[in-house]
Specification:
Elements: E1 3-5, E2 12-14, E3 17-19, H1 33-45, E4 50-52, H2 61-71, E5 79-84, H3 100-114, E6 119-124, H4 133-145, E7 149-155, H5 159-172, E8 177-181, H6 195-202, E9 205-206, H7 238-254, H8 258-267, E10 276-278, H9 282-289, H10 298-308, H11 316-319, H12 322-329
Parallel strand pairs: 3-4, 3-10, 4-5, 5-6, 6-7, 7-8, 8-9
Antiparallel strand pairs: 1-2
Helix pairs in contact: 1-9, 2-3, 4-5, 5-6, 7-8, 7-10
Length: 339
């Protein structure tokens, strides 16, 4: 496993992040503690150090399992990411949301479950659309100054909110976001409209969740296998099937699994991207780890981009018009370096 710098920080994380939403057997599915330990052992032995969890995953069991594991291993080897925002109890209206009160409470509870003194990377999980972003930034910066959090990040939030937060933090000398977690895959490319350009501008590492679209991009549904995706899901519609068939065809050409192609596509998009690979079985992790040995050619990328292309809408498509480029660059568009 190679290591990448997380955003504009000096933090070194493995090129695949292990998603642990399935650690625990609540809700009738997932990996028990022993299986979870086996998965983390295999991941660490492959050089993986980046663990992703959240306060709400499996009602807190995910954090508890990770806490027991890292307590008996080298805590400093692991870069532990967790999240706050979502409810972990129903006792009061401030036990959820982005507000400072819930932030502080949630982090303290996560530290207990994780059996650690600090969180390496704290994400805001989902934007609540009511808390001022300056309240969030100041609260997260206080946690960093207290030594309870090392770095901060944000997930599932509009681009303009993230941009405002990082700009404000830069002005005030507060900690800035280093990573952006969003749904991103060959079946979900809409972040390319504004979220990913924003991430590139601020030097944020993108950590895609559902990079395999819930397993749809593995091709198992086309082969007749079943899973947790409902038949009416857009992940299984006509467009999704067409994209998945191209993924499977390229996989056959390279002699690898379809999952390798789908994951590697997210890693070869010209910006810092570390996909989150979830696993509830050791075999799933072992297969995903093979992705690092795969390289997609320019032809492969073009075929995948073509079949999965989306409409960028305004202003993305407007900026790409030849007349606009000619007027803006005075005929020098192809001779000017682009950021």
């Amino acid at each position: 496993m190679n290591y990448k710098l997380l955003g504009r920080s000096g933090l070194k994380v493995s090129e695949l992040c292990l998603g642990t939403m399935g650690f625990g057997t609540e809700n009738g599915w997932g990996a028990d503690k022993d299986t979870s330990f086996t998965i983390m052992d295999a991941y660490a032995n492959a050089g993986g150090n980046f663990l992703d969890t959240a306060n709400i995953y499996k009602l807190g069991t995910s954090e508890k399992i990770i806490g027991e594991y890292i307590r008996n291993n080298d805590r400093d080897f692991f870069v532990l990411a967790t999240k706050y925002t979502l409810k972990d109890n129903l006792t009061n209206p401030n036990a959820s949301g982005n507000n400072r009160k819930n932030m502080m409470r949630s982090v303290e509870e996560s530290l207990k479950r994780l059996k650690t003194d600090f969180i390496d990377l704290l994400y805001l999980h989902i934007w609540d659309d009511i808390t001022p972003i300056d309240e969030v930034m100041r609260g997260m910066d206080d946690l960093v100054r207290q030594g309870k959090v090392n770095y901060i990040a944000i997930s599932d939030t509009p681009a303009w909110v993230v941009a405002k937060g990082n700009t404000l933090a830069e002005l005030m000398g507060w900690s800035q976001f280093v990573a952006l977690q969003v749904e991103y895959s060959l079946l979900a490319r809409t972040p390319e409209r504004d979220l990913i350009p924003m991430a590139k501008h601020f030097g944020l590492t993108v950590t895609p969740w559902a990079p395999l679209a819930g397993g749809a991009l593995t091709g198992k549904y086309i082969k007749g296998d079943t899973g947790r995706i409902k038949p009416e899901s857009k992940r299984l519609n006509e467009r999704a099937v067409e994209i998945t068939k191209v993924v499977m065809a390229i996989a056959d050409e390279l002699g690898v699994s379809a999952s390798h192609i789908a994951l590697k596509w997210t890693m070869q998009q010209g910006f810092s991207s570390i996909p989150i690979v979830g696993a509830t079985k050791l075999s799933q992790l072992e297969d995903n780890l093979k992705t690092i040995d795969v390289t997609l050619s320019e032809d492969h990328l073009k075929r995948l981009d073509k079949v999965s292309a989306i409409e960028l809408g305004f202003p993305g498509e407007f900026f790409a018009e030849e007349g606009v480029k000619n007027n803006v660059f005075g005929g020098f568009y192809d001779r000017v370096e682009k950021r």
